Amino acid sequence: MRKASQNAWGLPLPPGPPRMPLVGNLFQMPQVDPWIVYNDWAKKYGDITYLEVLGQRIVVLNSVKSIANILEKKAVNTSERLWMPVFDLLKLDWSFPFMNYTPFWKAHRKHFHQHLGPMQMEIYRPIIEDQTLKYLRALVKNPHDFRLQTRSWLGLTFMRLSYGINDAQWNENLIVKAQAVNQGFSEAAIAGRYLVNSIPLLRHVPAWVPGAGWRKRLEAVGELSREVSRVPFKQAKEQVDLGKVDEDISLVRRLVDDLPPETHPSYEERATIARNVAAIGYIAGADTTLSALYGLIIALAMHPEVMAKAQNEMDTVVGADRLPQPEDYERLPFVQAVVKESTRWHTVGPFALPHVSKKDEVYEGYFIPAGTAFLPNTWAVMHDPERFPDPMSFKPERYLKDGKLNKELLDPEFGIFGYGRRMCPGRFLAKDIILAHFAMCMISLFNIKPGRDEHGKEIPLEYKVASEVICTPAPYQVEVRPRSAKHATLIG
Protein backbone atom coordinates (compact mmCIF):
# COMPACT_ATOMS: atom_id res chain seq x y z
CA MET A 1 0.00 0.00 0.00
CA ARG A 2 1.32 3.44 -0.89
CA LYS A 3 1.37 6.18 1.71
CA ALA A 4 -1.48 8.65 1.66
CA SER A 5 1.09 11.48 1.76
CA GLN A 6 1.80 10.82 -1.91
CA ASN A 7 -1.59 12.40 -2.63
CA ALA A 8 -0.20 15.93 -2.50
CA TRP A 9 -3.42 17.31 -3.96
CA GLY A 10 -5.56 15.95 -1.10
CA LEU A 11 -8.03 14.60 -3.64
CA PRO A 12 -10.42 11.70 -3.04
CA LEU A 13 -10.09 8.29 -4.66
CA PRO A 14 -12.69 7.48 -7.33
CA PRO A 15 -16.00 6.14 -5.95
CA GLY A 16 -16.64 2.42 -5.63
CA PRO A 17 -18.19 -0.28 -3.44
CA PRO A 18 -17.37 -0.08 0.29
CA ARG A 19 -14.14 -1.89 1.17
CA MET A 20 -13.44 -4.21 4.09
CA PRO A 21 -10.28 -3.84 6.20
CA LEU A 22 -7.20 -5.60 4.73
CA VAL A 23 -9.02 -7.59 2.00
CA GLY A 24 -10.75 -4.59 0.41
CA ASN A 25 -13.27 -5.71 -2.23
CA LEU A 26 -11.92 -9.26 -2.50
CA PHE A 27 -15.26 -10.90 -1.71
CA GLN A 28 -17.21 -8.58 -4.00
CA MET A 29 -15.28 -9.36 -7.17
CA PRO A 30 -17.90 -10.78 -9.57
CA GLN A 31 -17.18 -14.17 -11.13
CA VAL A 32 -20.27 -14.49 -13.35
CA ASP A 33 -20.62 -11.97 -16.20
CA PRO A 34 -18.33 -9.48 -14.43
CA TRP A 35 -18.57 -7.03 -17.33
CA ILE A 36 -22.32 -6.72 -16.69
CA VAL A 37 -21.82 -6.31 -12.95
CA TYR A 38 -19.21 -3.56 -13.45
CA ASN A 39 -21.53 -1.86 -15.93
CA ASP A 40 -24.31 -1.93 -13.34
CA TRP A 41 -21.94 -0.50 -10.73
CA ALA A 42 -21.16 2.34 -13.12
CA LYS A 43 -24.78 3.46 -12.89
CA LYS A 44 -24.22 3.98 -9.16
CA TYR A 45 -20.58 5.07 -8.94
CA GLY A 46 -19.96 6.69 -12.32
CA ASP A 47 -18.00 5.63 -15.37
CA ILE A 48 -14.85 4.93 -13.33
CA THR A 49 -15.20 2.52 -10.41
CA TYR A 50 -12.48 2.11 -7.78
CA LEU A 51 -11.71 -1.26 -6.17
CA GLU A 52 -8.97 -2.67 -3.97
CA VAL A 53 -8.08 -6.34 -3.58
CA LEU A 54 -5.50 -7.03 -0.88
CA GLY A 55 -3.68 -3.81 -1.69
CA GLN A 56 -3.92 -3.98 -5.48
CA ARG A 57 -5.76 -0.92 -6.70
CA ILE A 58 -8.12 -1.38 -9.65
CA VAL A 59 -10.07 1.19 -11.64
CA VAL A 60 -12.75 -0.15 -13.98
CA LEU A 61 -13.29 2.08 -17.01
CA ASN A 62 -16.85 1.79 -18.31
CA SER A 63 -17.07 4.49 -20.99
CA VAL A 64 -15.48 5.70 -24.20
CA LYS A 65 -14.61 8.96 -22.48
CA SER A 66 -12.71 7.44 -19.54
CA ILE A 67 -10.94 4.87 -21.70
CA ALA A 68 -9.84 7.44 -24.27
CA ASN A 69 -8.72 9.99 -21.68
CA ILE A 70 -6.80 7.57 -19.47
CA LEU A 71 -5.48 4.83 -21.78
CA GLU A 72 -4.91 6.85 -24.93
CA LYS A 73 -4.31 10.48 -24.01
CA LYS A 74 -2.28 9.46 -20.95
CA ALA A 75 -0.68 6.43 -22.63
CA VAL A 76 2.84 7.53 -21.65
CA ASN A 77 1.89 6.74 -18.05
CA THR A 78 -0.73 4.00 -18.47
CA SER A 79 0.84 1.43 -20.79
CA GLU A 80 2.40 -0.93 -18.26
CA ARG A 81 0.97 -4.41 -17.67
CA LEU A 82 -0.29 -6.22 -14.59
CA TRP A 83 1.72 -9.43 -14.18
CA MET A 84 -0.37 -11.97 -12.29
CA PRO A 85 1.22 -14.84 -10.32
CA VAL A 86 -0.84 -17.32 -12.34
CA PHE A 87 1.14 -16.21 -15.40
CA ASP A 88 4.28 -17.66 -13.80
CA LEU A 89 2.54 -21.01 -13.34
CA LEU A 90 1.18 -20.83 -16.89
CA LYS A 91 4.71 -20.02 -18.15
CA LEU A 92 3.57 -17.03 -20.17
CA ASP A 93 6.88 -15.16 -20.03
CA TRP A 94 7.14 -15.55 -23.83
CA SER A 95 3.86 -13.68 -24.47
CA PHE A 96 4.75 -10.08 -25.24
CA PRO A 97 1.19 -8.70 -24.76
CA PHE A 98 1.80 -9.31 -21.03
CA MET A 99 5.23 -7.65 -20.98
CA ASN A 100 5.79 -4.21 -19.52
CA TYR A 101 6.36 -1.20 -21.73
CA THR A 102 10.13 -1.67 -22.06
CA PRO A 103 12.67 -1.69 -24.91
CA PHE A 104 12.37 -5.49 -24.94
CA TRP A 105 8.61 -5.23 -25.49
CA LYS A 106 9.09 -2.53 -28.13
CA ALA A 107 11.48 -4.83 -30.02
CA HIS A 108 8.80 -7.54 -30.07
CA ARG A 109 6.16 -5.17 -31.34
CA LYS A 110 8.50 -3.72 -33.95
CA HIS A 111 9.24 -7.15 -35.43
CA PHE A 112 5.59 -8.16 -35.27
CA HIS A 113 4.48 -5.01 -37.08
CA GLN A 114 7.33 -5.29 -39.55
CA HIS A 115 6.14 -8.71 -40.68
CA LEU A 116 2.39 -8.59 -39.98
CA GLY A 117 1.57 -4.92 -40.50
CA PRO A 118 -0.99 -3.68 -43.04
CA MET A 119 1.59 -3.38 -45.83
CA GLN A 120 2.57 -7.05 -45.42
CA MET A 121 -0.85 -8.68 -45.79
CA GLU A 122 -0.57 -9.49 -49.48
CA ILE A 123 2.42 -11.74 -48.74
CA TYR A 124 0.26 -14.15 -46.77
CA ARG A 125 -2.85 -14.07 -48.97
CA PRO A 126 -1.96 -17.22 -50.99
CA ILE A 127 -1.87 -19.30 -47.79
CA ILE A 128 -5.20 -17.91 -46.61
CA GLU A 129 -6.89 -18.48 -49.96
CA ASP A 130 -5.51 -22.01 -50.27
CA GLN A 131 -6.58 -23.02 -46.76
CA THR A 132 -9.97 -21.33 -47.16
CA LEU A 133 -10.74 -23.25 -50.35
CA LYS A 134 -9.94 -26.53 -48.57
CA TYR A 135 -12.22 -25.46 -45.73
CA LEU A 136 -15.13 -24.59 -48.02
CA ARG A 137 -14.85 -27.98 -49.71
CA ALA A 138 -14.86 -29.69 -46.32
CA LEU A 139 -18.06 -27.86 -45.39
CA VAL A 140 -19.75 -29.07 -48.56
CA LYS A 141 -18.89 -32.67 -47.67
CA ASN A 142 -19.93 -32.33 -44.03
CA PRO A 143 -22.49 -29.53 -43.50
CA HIS A 144 -23.21 -30.55 -39.89
CA ASP A 145 -19.66 -30.22 -38.58
CA PHE A 146 -19.22 -26.47 -38.88
CA ARG A 147 -17.55 -25.78 -35.52
CA LEU A 148 -14.90 -28.49 -35.79
CA GLN A 149 -14.16 -27.71 -39.44
CA THR A 150 -13.82 -24.01 -38.68
CA ARG A 151 -11.52 -24.58 -35.72
CA SER A 152 -9.32 -26.89 -37.77
CA TRP A 153 -9.21 -24.53 -40.77
CA LEU A 154 -8.31 -21.48 -38.74
CA GLY A 155 -5.69 -23.34 -36.71
CA LEU A 156 -4.06 -24.81 -39.80
CA THR A 157 -4.11 -21.42 -41.50
CA PHE A 158 -2.39 -19.69 -38.59
CA MET A 159 0.15 -22.52 -38.28
CA ARG A 160 1.10 -22.15 -41.93
CA LEU A 161 1.20 -18.37 -41.66
CA SER A 162 3.37 -18.47 -38.56
CA TYR A 163 5.57 -21.51 -39.10
CA GLY A 164 5.20 -22.54 -42.74
CA ILE A 165 4.52 -26.14 -41.68
CA ASN A 166 2.01 -27.71 -44.08
CA ASP A 167 1.51 -30.99 -42.21
CA ALA A 168 -2.16 -31.13 -41.18
CA GLN A 169 -1.77 -33.93 -38.62
CA TRP A 170 1.28 -32.35 -36.95
CA ASN A 171 -0.41 -28.96 -36.92
CA GLU A 172 -3.63 -30.40 -35.49
CA ASN A 173 -1.76 -31.82 -32.51
CA LEU A 174 -0.32 -28.41 -31.68
CA ILE A 175 -3.66 -26.69 -32.28
CA VAL A 176 -5.28 -28.78 -29.54
CA LYS A 177 -2.47 -27.95 -27.11
CA ALA A 178 -2.52 -24.25 -27.97
CA GLN A 179 -6.26 -24.15 -27.36
CA ALA A 180 -5.69 -25.66 -23.92
CA VAL A 181 -3.20 -22.86 -23.17
CA ASN A 182 -5.65 -20.19 -24.28
CA GLN A 183 -8.43 -21.79 -22.26
CA GLY A 184 -6.22 -21.96 -19.18
CA PHE A 185 -5.30 -18.30 -19.48
CA SER A 186 -8.88 -17.25 -20.20
CA GLU A 187 -10.17 -18.98 -17.08
CA ALA A 188 -7.33 -17.95 -14.76
CA ALA A 189 -7.07 -14.25 -15.59
CA ILE A 190 -10.53 -13.18 -14.42
CA ALA A 191 -10.01 -10.80 -11.47
CA GLY A 192 -10.66 -12.50 -8.16
CA ARG A 193 -10.94 -16.04 -9.53
CA TYR A 194 -7.61 -17.30 -8.18
CA LEU A 195 -6.55 -16.22 -4.69
CA VAL A 196 -2.90 -16.64 -5.68
CA ASN A 197 -3.22 -13.49 -7.81
CA SER A 198 -3.96 -11.54 -4.63
CA ILE A 199 -1.64 -13.51 -2.31
CA PRO A 200 1.45 -14.29 -4.46
CA LEU A 201 3.07 -16.39 -1.72
CA LEU A 202 0.48 -19.08 -2.46
CA ARG A 203 2.32 -19.93 -5.67
CA HIS A 204 4.92 -21.68 -3.51
CA VAL A 205 2.33 -24.06 -2.05
CA PRO A 206 3.12 -27.61 -3.32
CA ALA A 207 0.53 -29.19 -5.59
CA TRP A 208 0.17 -32.17 -3.23
CA VAL A 209 -1.14 -30.03 -0.37
CA PRO A 210 -4.92 -30.55 0.14
CA GLY A 211 -6.82 -27.77 -1.62
CA ALA A 212 -3.94 -26.95 -3.97
CA GLY A 213 -5.31 -28.81 -6.98
CA TRP A 214 -5.51 -25.46 -8.75
CA ARG A 215 -1.71 -25.37 -8.86
CA LYS A 216 -1.52 -28.78 -10.52
CA ARG A 217 -4.01 -27.67 -13.18
CA LEU A 218 -2.14 -24.46 -13.90
CA GLU A 219 1.25 -26.19 -14.04
CA ALA A 220 -0.11 -28.74 -16.54
CA VAL A 221 -1.20 -25.86 -18.77
CA GLY A 222 2.20 -24.25 -18.19
CA GLU A 223 3.99 -27.29 -19.63
CA LEU A 224 1.82 -27.05 -22.74
CA SER A 225 2.55 -23.33 -22.93
CA ARG A 226 6.30 -23.96 -22.91
CA GLU A 227 5.91 -26.64 -25.60
CA VAL A 228 3.69 -24.75 -28.06
CA SER A 229 5.78 -21.57 -27.75
CA ARG A 230 9.10 -23.31 -28.45
CA VAL A 231 8.77 -26.61 -30.33
CA PRO A 232 7.12 -25.29 -33.54
CA PHE A 233 9.70 -22.52 -33.87
CA LYS A 234 12.60 -24.93 -33.34
CA GLN A 235 11.32 -27.32 -35.99
CA ALA A 236 10.37 -24.57 -38.42
CA LYS A 237 13.78 -22.91 -38.04
CA GLU A 238 15.51 -26.21 -38.71
CA GLN A 239 13.50 -26.57 -41.92
CA VAL A 240 14.38 -23.01 -42.99
CA ASP A 241 18.06 -23.60 -42.25
CA LEU A 242 17.94 -26.75 -44.40
CA GLY A 243 16.07 -24.99 -47.18
CA LYS A 244 13.03 -27.23 -46.73
CA VAL A 245 10.26 -24.63 -46.65
CA ASP A 246 6.69 -24.27 -47.79
CA GLU A 247 6.47 -22.64 -51.22
CA ASP A 248 4.62 -19.75 -49.59
CA ILE A 249 6.40 -17.31 -47.27
CA SER A 250 5.79 -17.75 -43.54
CA LEU A 251 6.40 -15.49 -40.57
CA VAL A 252 9.20 -17.72 -39.22
CA ARG A 253 10.92 -17.83 -42.59
CA ARG A 254 11.06 -14.05 -42.69
CA LEU A 255 12.10 -13.77 -39.03
CA VAL A 256 14.89 -16.34 -39.42
CA ASP A 257 16.15 -14.65 -42.58
CA ASP A 258 16.51 -11.45 -40.55
CA LEU A 259 18.54 -13.03 -37.74
CA PRO A 260 22.23 -12.13 -37.44
CA PRO A 261 24.88 -14.90 -37.45
CA GLU A 262 24.79 -17.12 -34.37
CA THR A 263 28.16 -15.70 -33.32
CA HIS A 264 26.75 -12.17 -33.18
CA PRO A 265 26.31 -10.73 -29.64
CA SER A 266 22.64 -9.93 -30.29
CA TYR A 267 21.75 -13.34 -31.70
CA GLU A 268 20.26 -14.90 -28.55
CA GLU A 269 17.98 -11.97 -27.85
CA ARG A 270 16.94 -11.63 -31.49
CA ALA A 271 16.22 -15.36 -31.74
CA THR A 272 14.13 -15.22 -28.55
CA ILE A 273 12.13 -12.30 -29.93
CA ALA A 274 11.61 -14.15 -33.23
CA ARG A 275 10.38 -17.25 -31.38
CA ASN A 276 8.01 -15.21 -29.21
CA VAL A 277 6.62 -13.22 -32.14
CA ALA A 278 5.89 -16.40 -34.11
CA ALA A 279 4.18 -17.98 -31.10
CA ILE A 280 1.94 -15.01 -30.34
CA GLY A 281 1.10 -14.73 -34.04
CA TYR A 282 -0.51 -18.13 -33.79
CA ILE A 283 -1.54 -18.77 -30.20
CA ALA A 284 -3.14 -15.40 -29.45
CA GLY A 285 -4.62 -14.86 -32.90
CA ALA A 286 -6.26 -18.21 -33.52
CA ASP A 287 -8.51 -18.33 -30.45
CA THR A 288 -9.77 -14.76 -30.54
CA THR A 289 -10.41 -14.91 -34.29
CA LEU A 290 -12.19 -18.25 -33.95
CA SER A 291 -14.51 -16.76 -31.33
CA ALA A 292 -15.33 -13.88 -33.70
CA LEU A 293 -16.15 -16.32 -36.52
CA TYR A 294 -18.40 -18.40 -34.28
CA GLY A 295 -20.14 -15.19 -33.21
CA LEU A 296 -20.74 -14.14 -36.82
CA ILE A 297 -22.23 -17.49 -37.82
CA ILE A 298 -24.64 -17.82 -34.91
CA ALA A 299 -25.78 -14.23 -35.54
CA LEU A 300 -26.53 -15.02 -39.20
CA ALA A 301 -28.25 -18.29 -38.34
CA MET A 302 -30.44 -16.55 -35.76
CA HIS A 303 -31.33 -13.72 -38.16
CA PRO A 304 -32.28 -15.16 -41.58
CA GLU A 305 -33.58 -11.78 -42.74
CA VAL A 306 -30.07 -10.33 -42.29
CA MET A 307 -28.54 -13.28 -44.14
CA ALA A 308 -30.96 -12.85 -47.06
CA LYS A 309 -30.19 -9.14 -47.36
CA ALA A 310 -26.45 -9.78 -47.25
CA GLN A 311 -26.75 -12.51 -49.89
CA ASN A 312 -28.70 -10.15 -52.12
CA GLU A 313 -25.89 -7.60 -51.89
CA MET A 314 -23.29 -10.29 -52.65
CA ASP A 315 -25.29 -11.44 -55.69
CA THR A 316 -25.61 -7.87 -56.97
CA VAL A 317 -21.96 -6.90 -56.51
CA VAL A 318 -20.08 -10.19 -56.96
CA GLY A 319 -22.54 -12.30 -58.91
CA ALA A 320 -22.81 -16.08 -58.91
CA ASP A 321 -20.04 -16.90 -61.37
CA ARG A 322 -16.97 -16.47 -59.20
CA LEU A 323 -15.69 -16.58 -55.64
CA PRO A 324 -15.49 -13.31 -53.69
CA GLN A 325 -12.18 -11.46 -53.89
CA PRO A 326 -10.60 -9.14 -51.29
CA GLU A 327 -11.23 -6.07 -53.40
CA ASP A 328 -14.98 -6.80 -53.34
CA TYR A 329 -15.28 -6.04 -49.63
CA GLU A 330 -15.16 -2.26 -49.95
CA ARG A 331 -18.10 -2.41 -52.37
CA LEU A 332 -20.29 -4.34 -49.90
CA PRO A 333 -21.50 -1.83 -47.28
CA PHE A 334 -24.16 -4.11 -45.82
CA VAL A 335 -21.76 -7.05 -45.50
CA GLN A 336 -19.29 -4.70 -43.81
CA ALA A 337 -22.08 -3.60 -41.46
CA VAL A 338 -22.84 -7.25 -40.67
CA VAL A 339 -19.20 -7.85 -39.73
CA LYS A 340 -19.05 -4.70 -37.61
CA GLU A 341 -22.28 -5.53 -35.81
CA SER A 342 -21.21 -9.11 -35.15
CA THR A 343 -18.00 -7.91 -33.45
CA ARG A 344 -19.99 -5.38 -31.41
CA TRP A 345 -22.84 -7.75 -30.48
CA HIS A 346 -20.48 -10.61 -29.64
CA THR A 347 -17.63 -8.95 -27.75
CA VAL A 348 -14.81 -11.52 -27.92
CA GLY A 349 -12.85 -9.83 -25.14
CA PRO A 350 -15.32 -8.15 -22.74
CA PHE A 351 -12.30 -6.66 -21.00
CA ALA A 352 -9.09 -5.58 -22.64
CA LEU A 353 -5.96 -6.69 -20.81
CA PRO A 354 -5.38 -4.40 -17.80
CA HIS A 355 -3.10 -1.37 -18.14
CA VAL A 356 -1.05 -0.21 -15.17
CA SER A 357 0.10 3.31 -14.32
CA LYS A 358 3.74 4.13 -13.55
CA LYS A 359 3.00 7.40 -11.76
CA ASP A 360 0.17 9.02 -9.84
CA GLU A 361 -2.67 10.37 -11.95
CA VAL A 362 -5.47 12.87 -11.46
CA TYR A 363 -8.67 12.36 -13.41
CA GLU A 364 -11.78 14.55 -13.09
CA GLY A 365 -10.94 15.53 -9.53
CA TYR A 366 -10.00 12.04 -8.35
CA PHE A 367 -6.59 10.83 -7.26
CA ILE A 368 -5.42 7.59 -8.88
CA PRO A 369 -2.22 6.23 -7.27
CA ALA A 370 0.73 4.85 -9.21
CA GLY A 371 0.50 1.11 -9.74
CA THR A 372 -3.25 1.16 -10.30
CA ALA A 373 -4.56 -1.44 -12.75
CA PHE A 374 -7.02 -0.01 -15.27
CA LEU A 375 -9.60 -2.52 -16.49
CA PRO A 376 -11.35 -1.33 -19.67
CA ASN A 377 -14.90 -2.68 -19.87
CA THR A 378 -15.16 -3.07 -23.62
CA TRP A 379 -18.48 -4.92 -23.32
CA ALA A 380 -20.03 -1.90 -21.59
CA VAL A 381 -18.79 0.40 -24.37
CA MET A 382 -20.15 -1.88 -27.12
CA HIS A 383 -23.50 -2.25 -25.36
CA ASP A 384 -24.03 1.36 -24.36
CA PRO A 385 -27.69 2.14 -25.16
CA GLU A 386 -26.82 5.82 -25.60
CA ARG A 387 -24.65 4.92 -28.59
CA PHE A 388 -26.34 1.71 -29.65
CA PRO A 389 -30.10 1.75 -29.03
CA ASP A 390 -31.43 -1.72 -28.20
CA PRO A 391 -27.81 -2.90 -27.79
CA MET A 392 -28.59 -6.57 -27.11
CA SER A 393 -30.22 -6.93 -30.54
CA PHE A 394 -28.30 -7.78 -33.71
CA LYS A 395 -28.98 -4.88 -36.10
CA PRO A 396 -26.35 -4.36 -38.83
CA GLU A 397 -28.38 -1.49 -40.30
CA ARG A 398 -27.31 0.66 -37.35
CA TYR A 399 -23.95 1.01 -39.14
CA LEU A 400 -25.51 2.35 -42.34
CA LYS A 401 -26.69 5.81 -43.32
CA ASP A 402 -28.08 6.56 -46.79
CA GLY A 403 -26.79 3.20 -48.04
CA LYS A 404 -23.23 3.85 -46.88
CA LEU A 405 -21.28 3.07 -43.73
CA ASN A 406 -22.16 5.53 -41.00
CA LYS A 407 -18.85 7.12 -39.99
CA GLU A 408 -20.52 8.94 -37.11
CA LEU A 409 -21.26 5.75 -35.17
CA LEU A 410 -18.55 4.36 -32.92
CA ASP A 411 -16.68 1.65 -34.80
CA PRO A 412 -16.19 -1.56 -32.78
CA GLU A 413 -12.53 -1.34 -33.72
CA PHE A 414 -12.29 1.29 -30.99
CA GLY A 415 -12.26 -1.45 -28.39
CA ILE A 416 -12.08 -4.98 -29.74
CA PHE A 417 -8.32 -4.81 -30.42
CA GLY A 418 -7.29 -3.06 -27.21
CA TYR A 419 -6.35 0.55 -26.50
CA GLY A 420 -3.58 3.09 -26.81
CA ARG A 421 -0.03 1.83 -27.21
CA ARG A 422 -1.13 -1.72 -26.32
CA MET A 423 -3.49 -2.12 -29.26
CA CYS A 424 -3.24 -5.58 -30.86
CA PRO A 425 -0.69 -5.46 -33.69
CA GLY A 426 -2.32 -8.49 -35.36
CA ARG A 427 -5.59 -6.68 -36.01
CA PHE A 428 -4.92 -6.22 -39.72
CA LEU A 429 -4.63 -9.95 -40.33
CA ALA A 430 -7.62 -10.85 -38.16
CA LYS A 431 -9.94 -8.10 -39.40
CA ASP A 432 -9.04 -7.22 -42.97
CA ILE A 433 -7.98 -10.63 -44.22
CA ILE A 434 -9.51 -13.50 -42.29
CA LEU A 435 -12.80 -12.12 -40.91
CA ALA A 436 -13.71 -10.15 -44.03
CA HIS A 437 -12.81 -13.00 -46.40
CA PHE A 438 -14.64 -15.54 -44.24
CA ALA A 439 -17.79 -13.40 -44.11
CA MET A 440 -17.92 -12.89 -47.86
CA CYS A 441 -17.41 -16.58 -48.63
CA MET A 442 -19.95 -17.85 -46.09
CA ILE A 443 -22.63 -15.33 -47.09
CA SER A 444 -22.09 -15.70 -50.81
CA LEU A 445 -21.86 -19.49 -51.04
CA PHE A 446 -23.93 -21.00 -48.22
CA ASN A 447 -27.27 -21.01 -46.49
CA ILE A 448 -26.81 -21.17 -42.73
CA LYS A 449 -29.69 -22.53 -40.69
CA PRO A 450 -30.27 -24.02 -37.24
CA GLY A 451 -29.43 -27.71 -37.00
CA ARG A 452 -32.06 -30.44 -36.63
CA ASP A 453 -32.45 -33.28 -34.16
CA GLU A 454 -32.95 -36.98 -34.96
CA HIS A 455 -36.66 -36.30 -35.60
CA GLY A 456 -35.94 -33.57 -38.11
CA LYS A 457 -37.05 -30.84 -35.71
CA GLU A 458 -35.15 -27.58 -35.75
CA ILE A 459 -32.92 -27.09 -32.70
CA PRO A 460 -33.43 -23.57 -31.27
CA LEU A 461 -30.32 -21.43 -31.22
CA GLU A 462 -29.33 -19.57 -28.08
CA TYR A 463 -26.43 -17.18 -27.77
CA LYS A 464 -24.54 -17.77 -24.51
CA VAL A 465 -20.94 -17.21 -23.40
CA ALA A 466 -18.93 -18.27 -20.35
CA SER A 467 -17.40 -15.80 -17.89
CA GLU A 468 -13.87 -15.85 -19.25
CA VAL A 469 -11.32 -13.41 -20.64
CA ILE A 470 -11.84 -14.76 -24.17
CA CYS A 471 -15.57 -15.34 -24.63
CA THR A 472 -16.58 -17.95 -27.19
CA PRO A 473 -20.24 -18.72 -27.95
CA ALA A 474 -21.38 -21.90 -26.22
CA PRO A 475 -21.60 -24.89 -28.61
CA TYR A 476 -24.50 -24.65 -31.04
CA GLN A 477 -25.64 -26.66 -34.05
CA VAL A 478 -26.09 -25.23 -37.52
CA GLU A 479 -26.36 -26.65 -41.02
CA VAL A 480 -24.14 -25.02 -43.61
CA ARG A 481 -25.17 -26.02 -47.13
CA PRO A 482 -24.35 -24.55 -50.57
CA ARG A 483 -27.06 -22.23 -51.83
CA SER A 484 -27.24 -24.12 -55.11
CA ALA A 485 -25.41 -26.67 -57.24
CA LYS A 486 -23.86 -23.75 -59.11
CA HIS A 487 -22.46 -22.31 -55.88
CA ALA A 488 -21.06 -25.72 -54.96
CA THR A 489 -19.34 -25.88 -58.34
CA LEU A 490 -17.52 -22.62 -57.63
CA ILE A 491 -15.91 -24.30 -54.63
CA GLY A 492 -14.79 -27.25 -56.75
UniProtKB/TrEMBL annotation:
Could you tell me one molecular function GO term of this UniProt entry?
heme binding
Q: Which CDD domains match?
A: CYP64-like (cd11065)
Q: Does the keyword Iron apply?
A: yes
Q: What is the lineage of its organism?
A: Eukaryota, Fungi, Dikarya, Basidiomycota, Agaricomycotina
- Which SUPFAM superfamilies does the record match to this protein? Cytochrome P450
Task: Name the pathway it acts in.
Answer: Secondary metabolite biosynthesis
Q: Which InterPro entries match?
A: Cyt_P450, Cyt_P450_CS, Cyt_P450_E_grp-I, Cyt_P450_sf, Cytochrome_P450_fung
Cofactor(s) needed: heme
The residues that hold heme are 424
Which key words tag this protein in UniProt? Answer: Heme, Iron, Metal-binding, Monooxygenase, Oxidoreductase
Similarity comment text for this entry: Belongs to the cytochrome P450 family.
Pfam families linked? p450 (PF00067)
Domain of life, source organism: Eukaryota
Organism name: Coprinopsis marcescibilis (Agaric fungus)
What is the name of this protein? Answer: Oxidoreductase A
Q: Does the keyword DNA-binding apply?
A: no
